[in-house]
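step=encode ok
step=design start
structure_in=
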């Protein structure tokens, strides 16, 4: 009987710690942490959390016009930017004459075409009519989610390696 009492005391003592240990274990899995969404009941804010990756970047699992696209969240980019191959994948086709807008990039000056992405979804977050610039694949290797989308949020902040988007 004493054994059962000791086991019961150990279980009661360990029980409050189990959720913390489980949460810490989940936190080490980048993909599990990246996909955390919180949708509040009613008309409250929608929230999405993105964990920093191994390179120090915040990469969102986004849906552009219904197509799954990984996007680098770039708060320093004025406008959302897409490589031409991604633009075409989501149904945006531009003529060569539309590539007339000079853009300053880290690799120098290039020319892009202005467009609008009808729908962007990241977890519970929804953006509509996002202004974007399309650049050649050589000029831009990865799609960037810039301030033309992020300015549609109530707020965003970074804390403890997690970017939190609130709409």
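sequence_out=
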């Amino acid at each position: 009987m004493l054994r059962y009492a000791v086991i019961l005391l150990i279980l009661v003592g360990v029980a409050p710690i189990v959720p913390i240990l489980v949460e810490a274990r989940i936190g080490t899995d980048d993909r599990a942490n990246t996909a955390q969404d919180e949708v509040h009941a009613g008309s409250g804010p929608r929230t999405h959390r993105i964990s920093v990756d191994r390179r120090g970047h915040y990469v969102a699992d986004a849906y552009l016009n219904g197509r799954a696209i990984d996007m680098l969240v770039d708060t320093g980019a004025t406008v959302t930017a897409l490589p031409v191959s991604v633009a075409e994948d989501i149904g945006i086709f531009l003529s060569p004459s539309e590539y007339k807008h000079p853009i300053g990039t880290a690799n120098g000056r290039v020319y892009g075409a202005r467009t609008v992405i009808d729908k962007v979804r990241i977890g519970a977050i929804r953006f509509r009519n996002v202004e974007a610039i399309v650049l050649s694949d050589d000029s831009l290797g990865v799609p960037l989610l810039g301030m033309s989308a992020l300015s549609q949020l109530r707020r965003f902040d970074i804390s403890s390696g997690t970017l939190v988007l609130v709409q």
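step=design ok
step=annotate ok -> The CA atoms of residues 26 and 97 lie 49 Å apart.
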